[in-house]
Amino acid sequence: MEKITGKNNNLIKDIKKLLSSSKQRRARGLFVIEGERLVFDVLNSFYDIKYFLITQTQFDKNKKAADAMVQKSEKSFIISEEICDKITDTDNPQGIFAVCKIKENTFSSLTGKKYIALDHVQDPGNLGAISRTAEALGMDGMIICGGCDIYNPKALRASMGSMLRIQVMETENLPDFLLHAENSGFHIYAAVPDSDAEKLTDTDFSGSSICIIGNEANGISKEVLSVCSKLITIPMPGRAESLNASVAASILMWEMLR
User: How far apart are CA 10 and CA 27, in angstroms?
Assistant: First the structure.
């Protein structure tokens, strides 16, 4: 393994850019994961690893997993603690990083029955939490249009690795995607805070279903609403007018799968 000690190393500069910029990630086709759990989780994902970077202390502590990462990565490096502090995106860096290749969106058709769709969900914490719940409950995948970049470091951390394992389909045109799904036999449900909508608890999810969660501030767009089979709502007898996007998604997915 090569050693990197200089903070002005070009690879280190590139990693900083990838961590901070969605535009750079998409242009380079690369994203960065950081931390012991996430990095070693990638061993069990379908992502290819371009670079693996680790401090000597962490390599000695996690030798078996680190050796596996070295075998799976195109190139591996030992980095100094100083460099770790320079490139980290966290307050308490663990000294383990991986640069992975973004997968092309090759999902041409829906292969399962239950999906959650996100219409411009912006908050990385919400995106990560929704993916974690989706994987835990056994959803077949996620459909994402706009909003937070799925390779955002905060979203990846909030997902606890789920974003690396669950099927994620990205689309720039959610209405067209949903129309195609409807023609393939899917029922399309839009979750709205509207007392006139059908109660979630009365909704029949026995068939192939997609349920949509909207943007935190503006909800589901009019264009997406226009192609939905049915509007549904979570009954809220309390005084709150709405729920956090990830909380609403969790309730919806639970009802879809029970």
Answer: 17
48-105 per-position pLDDT tens digit: 999 999 999 999 999 999 999 999 999 999 999 999 998 988 888 899 999 999 987 7
Distances in Å between the alpha carbon of 177 and those of 31, 108, 181, 204? 26, 10, 6, 22
Predicted TM-score of the model (pTM): 0.91
Report the alpha-carbon distance of residue 39 to residue 191 in Å, rounded: 34
Residue 18 structure tokens: 């990838």
The per-residue pLDDT for range 131-175, each reduced to its tens digit, is 999 999 999 999 999 999 999 999 999 999 999 999 999 999 999
